[in-house]
Amino acid sequence: MITAVGVVVPARDEEERIAACLDSVLAALPPGVDAAVVAVLDRCTDTTASRVPPGVDVLVNDVPLTVGELRDRGLRHALARLADRADPATAWLLSTDADSIVGPGWVHDHLRHAAAGAHAVAGLVDLDPALDGAPDPGPEYARIVGSGLRPDGHGHVYGANLGVRADAYLAAGGFPAVVHGEDHALVGRLREAGFRVVTALDGRVRTSARTVGRAPGGLADLLAALGGTGDRGLPRGTVAGG
Questions:
Q1: In the chain, where do the E strands start and end?
Q2: Distance (Å, rounded) from C-alpha 219 to C-alpha 137?
Q3: How far, in Å, CA of 223 to CA of 141, rounded?
Q4: How many whole angstroms separate alpha carbon 77 and alpha carbon 82?
Q5: 123-173: per-residue pLDDT in tens?
Q6: pLDDT at 215
Q7: What is the C-alpha to C-alpha distance for residues 24 and 22, in angstroms, rounded to an integer?
Q8: Using one digit for the tens of pLDDT, what is the confidence trace for 39-83?
Q9: Which spans are transmembrane here (predicted)?
Q10: Cα dihedral sign for 183, 55, 17, 213?
């Protein structure tokens, strides 16, 4: 039974978005579950730090790190904070992004899958141009997402909506130190180690449709490629995800 939840939100110069993101995370925490929410601020040069709401731990990073290292650092900090209240078999670790808004049932939906035997949950995200006033990504992105949907799940992975039981996370070595694709790499590690990964259709997260992101090779770059060249500019095998 999961008794504690840790959440990581990496952020770099997200003064316009971080408060709304973290407020949504705090609002999604179920009553009776111990929680540690960690914002990892990566070389911010704006007022992001002052926009973090009470109840969130802040880690400040001043040296170049990969997004995988940032997520891993935040989750391990959360685990340390929860160590006296939960062990790795009863703690659930969640990752989202600073340009995203989680729904009120986000954590609950992850924990429901955990109670049914999932070691990890790869959830979906819905692009919301209104979050940034970004242009609609158009039919190409919808086609990419739709091509990976199945009645019982999907074939996508997003760092903005990813959860994993702490003991499985540690056994798999956590998020790898890669510049992008850390979410896909972690899910690959979990599957290779024999852990059960559920690709959930519920518990969705709304995320920005911006085309200039903070991490190279992420969702923003995919959207920029679609806007600039259509799907002809994408490599074979491209899937939606951060």
A1: 4-11, 34-42, 56-61, 91-95, 100-102, 120-122, 125-127, 149-150, 153-154, 162-165, 197-199, 205-207
A2: 11
A3: 7
A4: 9
A5: 999 888 777 766 666 677 778 778 899 999 999 999 999 999 999 999 999
A6: 63
A7: 5
A8: 999 999 999 999 999 999 999 999 999 999 999 999 999 999 999
A9: none
A10: negative
